[in-house]
Design a protein that fits this description.
The structure holds 2 protein chains of 2 kinds. By secondary structure, chain A is an all-alpha fold. Chain A is built from 8 helices and no strands. Chain A has one domain: Four Helix Bundle (Hemerythrin (Met), subunit A). The two termini of chain A are 40 Å apart. About 2% of the residues of chain A have low confidence. By secondary structure, chain B is mainly α. Chain B has one domain. Chain B is 86% helix and 0% strand. Chain B contains 10 helices and no strands. In chain B, helix 6 runs antiparallel to helix 7. Chain B is globular and about 55 Å long. Classes of the chains: A mainly alpha, B mainly alpha.
Chain lengths: 245, 228
């Protein structure tokens, strides 16, 4: 059976598909988040070193992982859009950026909240914190460039090129910051390699999946708005029941 | 043979043209230099005149000031040619656009990067840097400032003709320049603490080669996107 892989690369068909998928992803994300937070707050034991404070990792770690993962996904969609000239890929890249920036911000924010009781400082120039901050800057630059170009086609292509250049630079930035940190100051913070309790691992994994599903749901909702905005002159948009009403 | 000679001929031509144009408006070149000197001179006023502290922060101050000064002149890299239509003509030439872009980048570096490198020793002496740390600082700046021009050229091509281009350009380019800053100041710090700066300088050189290969081509693509 031949599958038409490109069927859903057209905004017309994808709009309907995304509309059907969003409730599933949203409900699954909400359920998993409730389960993950329950395990994280009530089932997982108190850490003997960090007390109750460590529980912020159930938000902090999934947010950091997703902020990095989403940048790669964004750059991937941007590259697809640039190479195959598919409109939908560029729209997806645009839709991912705010969610990625949000996760980077949450990661920094929760990191600061965690750092105060643990290290005695809101901010430490640790390699991970610094590279997360630079990642947030890269997201902001991408969004700023996209929003300052009026022509949507040029905006898509220019910001796609920036995302690709950024993704080539991300490993260089990460390692340079890591070496900078070890050269300037002896690392005062060591994440001891203590084995995590099973309940902690479960809670973190469930929260990671929940955040991932949330990101998918939000990105699909955002891409639907972008499709409506870009295609507002077309007849199929004007025949949609939600537009007519 | 004829293609290589015409390629190099084009490269030389673009460099000579940009240099001539800049020499007719020397104020633009001087503004960048004066900005660099001013920013560096503000730091002792801000943090206090203790020589121990100044010696310690000198490489960082000089590098950050060089980074900001190179941002200033980037806006002019393509905008004048864009406004009078020269850029469109350049894009229509049979030679690859990347070669023309490389010529413009080299000219930009000679006009805005090289003067900073040449004046940096004087400013370093103001911060009481020793001779060997100064030498490494200059070597690092020589390797690093061309990379700043090349990364900056990508940003300048992407923001060509946009409103608020200057600030936007800094927002795009500064995060990408962080590795240069780290290795450049790292080399000076290494000498100051008695270590070998070769690893930092090698990494700077590696970044220079990497940028030399990819940046002109990416900038050419960005120009095509901006001009279509």
């Amino acid at each position: 059976m031949a599958i038409n892989w490109f069927k859903y690369s057209a905004p017309t068909t994808f709009y309907a598909l995304a509309g059907k998928l969003i409730p599933w992803f949203a409900v699954a994300a909400a359920l998993l988040m409730a389960v993950g937070l329950y395990i994280g707050f009530f089932v997982a034991p108190v850490d003997y070193q960090q007390g109750e404070f460590y529980r912020i990792i159930f938000i902090h770690v999934p947010a950091s992982i997703l902020s990095m993962f989403l940048y790669l996904v964004m750059a991937g969609y941007a590259a697809l859009g640039l190479i195959f000239n598919t409109r939908l890929s560029a729209m997806m890249a645009t839709a991912i950026a705010p969610t990625g920036a949000l996760f980077a911000f949450i990661s920094l924010w929760t990191g600061a909240l965690w750092g105060k009781p643990m290290w005695g400082a809101w901010w430490v120039w640790d390699a991970r914190l610094t590279s997360e901050l630079i990642l947030l800057f890269l997201y902001l630059g991408y969004m700023a460039l996209h929003s300052s170009i009026d022509d949507p086609r040029r905006a898509d292509r220019a910001s796609a090129l920036l995302a690709i250049v950024g993704s080539v630079n991300v490993p260089i930035i990460y390692f340079s910051v890591k070496w900078w940190n070890t050269l300037h100051q002896g690392s005062t913070i060591k994440f001891s390699g203590t084995s995590m309790h099973v309940a902690m691992q479960q809670a973190m994994f469930i929260m990671l999946v929940a955040c991932w599903l949330y990101a998918i749901a939000v990105v699909l909702a955002r891409v639907r708005s972008i499709i409506l905005e870009r295609e507002r002159q077309t007849s199929w948009v004007n025949e949609l029941p939600e537009v007519r009403a | 043979m004829s293609t290589t000679s015409s390629l190099f001929g084009m490269l030389q031509l673009v460099i000579r043209r940009d240099m001539t144009l800049a020499m007719r408006r020397r104020a633009d070149v001087l503004t960048t230099l004066i900005f660099f000197v001013m920013v560096v001179s503000l730091f002792p006023l801000g943090v206090g005149p203790e020589m121990d502290m100044l010696r310690k922060i000198a490489p960082g101050v000089l590098w950050v000031a060089a980074l900001l000064a190179s941002m200033l002149s980037l806006g002019r890299l393509f905008s004048a040619d864009h406004q009078d239509g020269t850029l469109e003509q350049l894009m229509l030439t049979p030679q690859p656009l990347a070669v023309i872009v490389l010529g413009k980048i080299i000219a930009h570096w000679m006009l805005s990067g090289l003067p900073l490198v040449l004046i940096a020793p004087v400013l370093g002496i103001q911060f009481d840097m020793s001779v060997e740390t100064l030498g490494i600082l200059i070597l690092g700046l020589l390797l690093g400032t061309p990379v700043l021009s090349m990364i900056g050229a990508i940003g300048a091509a992407l923001t060509l003709g946009l409103r608020g281009g200057g600030v936007l350009l800094s927002l795009l380019v500064l995060p990408l320049c962080i590795p240069i800053l780290i290795f450049g100041t790292g080399a000076v710090d290494a000498v100051a603490t008695g270590l070998n700066p070769a690893s930092h300088l090698s990494l700077l050189g590696a970044l220079l080669v990497l940028a030399l290969v990819f940046a002109p081509w990416v900038t050419a693509q960005a120009l095509r996107i901006s001009m279509e």
